[in-house]
Write a structure and sequence with these properties.
12 helices; 2 domains; Rossmann fold; globular; single chain; 36% helix; amp nucleosidase, domain 1
């Protein structure tokens, strides 16, 4: 049986801010050790023990049967079985508010102290010092490889969110979905794919597969900065920050080219602004970006993109609100088998439908004619049209009303990572009914629909934010044996 936590420098806390300060102290102390040790290599003076002792902070909780809080209505912030729970944590500068919420809930619900200490897991060098091996000589490179812990993906997996980790009675139970090293890995991947630092990401995330939406979002963001005091900055790839006066402050190394999935962040002081990412085309990109976005624990992500209408009664420019998905994308089959249903998140569905009505000013039968609710097929084959004869029967059996290449993947990873999700697409072509996307037709469609579609997504975010983020985190995304952190 566990008798203590696997930590050093452990302290117990019932005061949240004191606990957060100690987490920050331990993390900064470890980072300082790594930076000092690395500088020692550059200076020819190496202290091998410095880096090895630089470990992630740890949060632990011991709950006995008498301490259990048995309110079944709670979806997070509570443990359901007695035992020892723990997790390593990182980047308190980014996650302080998140840690504050989670620790506060545990203290309130269980009335037992939180244990904070230095874990036994060493922080890998690249997550603290952004070094380039090519700039080091042979001896320095040898010292880096032998004197520091480097990222090792064999230590990482998603067994906790995938529900495949089953700790024994005498093992530590997970307190969170992700370990600190998994979080650090994803934070660096986000920087790589989006061209922006992770501290800029906001609580609401919009995803699209067309750059034209991004252009409209930039214009919208500049209007909001001038008119709405709740927004503070727009941050673009290269960490270019635009303030209310539209003055752009560039990073030291502005990007020469857009990254693979450029992100734009309309920031608020409470971090409940909007991050908008052009994820490009295809389920692989959709999985990649949401794999990494998930560690930031956003309040929801919404997919706004284009789709092929499968019903003859649909018109170009009509909207599709997905409430079910046929997963023909296959990129998540190993992590989330395709037989698992993806439930619609009621709060998100209602917000999207209300947003369409608010922006289009349509009601009743007029609104139903403009927006169809139904099943969406997501395919991994961009030229699916060449298999129409084979797919026609599957479309009929599934009652599908539209097809795209990203949305089911986004929804599946939302379900997998307990992030509320939603999909509102716009019909841009109807290939099986002879209306294929030709250049002239496409340009006219984009001019007419992109701006309104984006405004609907932004209106949905406003509705969700004003109704309170607490109601978003549905119990239907949580299992019966969940880590207590949201």
């Amino acid at each position: 049986m566990i008798t203590d936590f696997p930590i050093t420098k452990g302290k117990s806390f019932t005061d949240v801010e004191a606990a957060l300060d100690y987490i920050d102290h331990l993390y900064q102390e470890s980072c300082a050790r790594i930076k000092t040790a690395f500088q020692g290599i550059l200076d020819g003076v190496l202290d091998e023990n410095l880096a090895i002792d630089a470990t992630y902070p740890f949060i632990g909780l011991r709950v006995e049967a008498k301490d259990l809080h048995l309110d079944a209505r709670l979806s997070y912030g509570v443990v359901l079985e007695p035992g020892f729970y723990g997790t390593t944590v990182t980047r308190p500068d980014i996650f302080r508010n998140y840690y504050r919420e989670q620790i506060s809930l545990l203290l309130d619900h269980h009335k037992v102290p939180i244990v904070i200490g230095a874990s036994l897991v060493t922080i890998p060098l690249p997550y603290v010092v952004d070094h380039t091996p090519a700039q080091l000589d042979t001896e320095q490179l040898w010292h880096v490889r032998n004197g520091f812990v480097l990222p090792n993906l064999s230590r990482l997996d998603d067994s906790i969110p995938n529900g495949t980790l089953h700790p024994k009675e005498d093992e530590l139970k997970p307190l969170a979905l992700f370990s600190a090293e998994r979080v650090d890995f994803s934070l660096h991947r986000l920087q790589h794919y989006t061209g922006t630092s992770p501290e800029h990401f906001q609580g609401f995330v919009l995803l699209t597969n067309y750059q034209r939406y991004i252009d409209e979002f930039i214009a919208y963001s500049k209007e909001q900065l001038a008119e709405d005091n709740s927004y503070t900055h727009l941050v673009a790839p290269g960490n270019i920050s635009i303030n209310k006066n539209h003055d752009a402050k560039k990073s030291d190394l502005p990007l020469k080219h857009l990254p693979q999935m450029p992100a734009y962040h309309l920031k608020r002081k409470d971090n409940q602004g909007i991050t908008f990412i052009n994820i490009g085309v295809g389920p692989s990109n959709a999985k990649t970006i949401t794999d990494h976005l998930a560690v930031l624990r956003p309040h929801c992500w919404l997919m706004l993109g284009h789709c092929a209408g499968l019903r003859s009664t649909q018109m170009l420019g009509d909207y599709v609100l997905a409430h079910a998905y046929v997963r023909e994308d296959h990129v998540l089959d190993q992590d989330l088998p395709p037989w698992i249903p993806l439930p619609p998140i009621a709060e998100v569905q209602v917000a999207l439908q209300q947003a369409v009505a608010n922006v289009s000013h349509e009601k009743g039968a007029e609104l139903k004619a403009r927006m169809r609710t139904g099943t969406l097929v997501t395919s991994d084959n961009r030229n699916w049209e060449l298999r129409t004869h084979e797919l026609y029967e599957r479309f009929k059996q599934s009652r599908a009303i539209a097809l795209d290449m990203e949305s089911a993947t986004v929804a599946a990873n939302g379900f997998r990572f307990r992030v509320p999700y939603g999909t509102l697409l716009c019909v841009s072509d109807k290939p099986i009914h002879g209306e294929i996307k030709l250049q002239g037709m496409a340009n006219a469609f984009y001019r007419q629909r992109v701006n309104q579609h984006l405004k609907i997504g932004l209106e949905a975010v406003r509705i969700l934010r004003e109704e309170g983020v607490e109601q978003l985190h549905s119990r239907k995304l949580r299992g019966f044996d969940e880590p207590p952190f949201r």
